[in-house]
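lol so apparently i was supposed to do this last week
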Amino acid sequence: MRIQIHGLHSVEQFQRPLEVITGLFFEEYELSFDPASAADVIVTFSLHGEEMGAVSGRIVEMANGREWKSDYQIDLRPYKDEKARFKQWKNAVVHVYLTLFQEYTGLVQQWGILTGVRPVKLLHQKLRSGLSQEEAHRQLREDYLVAEEKIQLMQKIVDRQLTVVPDLYDLSHEVSIYIGIPFCPTKCAYCTFPAYAINGRQGSVDSFLAGLHYEMKEVGRFLKERGVNITTIYYGGGTPTSITAEEMDRLYEEMYESFPNMERVREITVEAGRPDTITPEKLDVLKKWNIDRISINPQSYIQETLKAIGRHHTVEETIEKFHLARQMGMNNINMDLIIGLPGEGIEEFNYTLEQTEKLLPESLTVHTLSFKRASEMTKNKEKYKVAGRDEISAMMKNAEQWTKQHGYVPYYLYRQKNILGNLENVGYALPGQESIYNIMIMEEQQSIIGLGCGASSKFVHPKTRAITRFANPKEPKVYNENFVHYTEEKLKMMDELFR
Ligand code: SF4
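anyway here it is w/ iron/sulfur cluster bound
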């Protein structure tokens, strides 16, 4: 699809948001602001009024001259600073553009013009600013074009989060910790996480762990000195259980020694994503250190799918390791499912739900496959056939109904770029078994300090709420050579926040 855009003084400044919206409708497209370029459709914007007025848009199909129109009223009077005014402009142009293409293609975008990762955060912000629920919902519906169904889902999630973490808005004086272990037994095809096949890399693992212990000591010392408590701790990766039981034991010992007031930490999670890494010894270590929230990720219960995406474990192994973890006292198990894996349609996904029914983990995160730029799968897209938009939506609906029937409630949600069907990932949990860390990371109400490989830190200023990010290197080699530097940089940033 070749789209030519005209009108409105310097409309080019909205190029990026217009591209993102175009990508929701067309897999392949060219966007041009050059009146001489070849085009299948021409979009023209015009403006009426200044402080108060309307942005109008018109789309004309070149092949037959058919056209569609759309208007959006804009009132800039309440917005005094330039940034806020620019945002209003951008939203108005994007609003008109999305409406035009919805009419042109007949495709309705459930999330409207919201293309960011955290739509629920926007609702939190609106409610915190004093808007009534009714007014906040109206704005989502009319200004952002979000479908009623999604607004209801967002509200359900906000309510649930505030039940699970009643002091959610007052936790900026504490932090959560993310610890990234960059190793896995093998690399999956859709993966863009820092994950390196562990076999034959013991030297690298040893140096990495030495660096990680150092970071934990230094950051822990800082937190103790400044009297900053920790809300939650999360071990991710990679697969944190791909290191040995002894290595895990030493790591958790370090955590208890270095971090302040461990008895006040509300939750510790260890991702044990790949069932092929779970052993009775490792489960013993987790129990020894009071870690009872783990993640075991089947992704799918179809063996061929697992093989196609490069997960070298069997379906039976997932089930067996789940039961083992249960027997050994793990009472908060999360499982991740992915909708739209290559070769899978409704039938396969329903089978996966049937299997999940036999296990009933405490929480279930339902992801929709996204084609991340760097993954093996995206690079070889033609090799991996995935279901179409309608089938993906139907699978999502089935997941929603299934979770409801089984007593799960949605408690966090995030979206990704290039996600199939422009849908979302939803975390469901049995009431009382939600992951507080997931809420903290999604709603950005406090700083998350990232330690280890590929761990990003997100510093939320306790007063201004401004967010600064800082990322540790992804590759173990770079991390191993520079962890002292990365620790120092982080401590400097933390010093700014917690004086
Ligand atoms: S197990 Fe997870 S982190 Fe490891 S390669 Fe697969 S998707 Fe990536």
